[in-house]
Amino acid sequence: MKRQLHLAIGLLLFASTALKSQSAPNFTITDSDGQSHNLYTDYLDQGKTVVIKFFFTTCPPCNAIAPLMEPFYQEWGGGAHDVEFISLSIMNFDDNNDVALYKAAKGHTFPGAGINGGSITASQPYINGMFGNFTGTPTFAVIAPDRSVIFDPRGISFVATLDSVDVAIRSTGAEKPPIPYTISGTVKNTLNVGVAGVSVSVSGLEQYVDTTDSAGQFEFTAMLEPRLDYYLSASKNYNFVNGVTTSDMIDIRKHVLALQIITQPTRLLAADANKSGGISTQDIVELRKLVLSVQDSLSQQESWFFYNAAYTFINPEHPFPEIYNTLNAAIKFRTSSLPPFHFRAIKIGDINESADPGQ
């Protein structure tokens, strides 16, 4: 029985037209390089997932998606890891020589076959509706090692289609080999001065970390999977009293008494010493304990607060809910993102921005 398969990637939820059905029938093809490929023996029985692309060499949409295919193939290991790609022409005017010329023109390195390589016979179950309605080329079928088929994962664009194929591949248990990705950028305070001693890491992968230098710069390399969303975070949690003075507490008191309202989002965040999501006399109490050496840290806040320097506050006069307990403070990226990345640093309790960024 066919059923709709709903797939999710990271925080992105989307509905796919992909369908699971009965087991994929075996086939043997001879590719355009003269190599034989048996679906079961060479791939599925070896624990590999197979992605079939149904196409033909003069198909305009196939030619449009073609530049995306080789990078996508390499993301999944270029056939050397958990996944193999195979392209099958569905037209009887495409022979292996035509497919070879097509592959060379598009820079494709995954196997492909034409009519004299057995592509028509191998394609028939998919074209004839065994796994769902065939709507034209390019169409993909993802075959898991257990021989189940996810047919026609598709999106509203070519990129979205490959995202759907990507999720379908993951659902078979295949894992994408990570690649080295260099992360670099700066951490600067509200005066645009670099902050030293800040630990910058990939959330959930804290083994990849660097500490900012005296100019607030960081750079490190992490092994990451293409097409996954990652989040960069920053932390500096010592020397709490740095920059905290009686003058800061006076500014907070004026705000609480509505004598001089603080309107800048960064200063409001700096004033929220107890991380309550607002400014009150309790913040003054917390900071006074630091100044009087009654305590050497804050109960709810770290010494510094960091957020994505590219973030624009929706409500600058009440920034707390859009920053606390959300991903807005982190920097979201993929391996396709181009660094550098930049953080803005706020010293908690330092309303007048007197903290030494090197301490």
Give an overview in words.
With 359 residues, this protein is an alpha+beta fold. It has two domains: 3-171, Glutaredoxin, CATH 3.40.30.10; 178-359, no CATH class. The chain is built from nine helices and 17 strands. It has helices at 39-43, 60-75, 96-106, 119-127, 158-171, 246-256, 265-271, 281-291, 320-323, and strands spanning 3-9, 12-20, 28-30, 36-38, 49-55, 83-89, 112-113, 139-143, 149-151, 179-189, 199-202, 205-211, 217-224, 230-235, 304-308, 331-333, 341-347. The strands form four sheets. It has a seven-stranded mixed β-sheet, with helices on both faces. Strands 13-10-17-15 form a four-stranded mixed β-sheet. β5 (49-55), α2 and β6 (83-89) form a beta-alpha-beta unit. The longest helix has 16 residues, at 60-75. The N and C termini lie far apart (65 Å).
Which characteristics define this entry?
single chain, 359 residues, alpha+beta, Glutaredoxin, 2 domains, seven-stranded mixed β-sheet, four-stranded mixed β-sheet, 9 helices, 25% helix, disordered N terminus
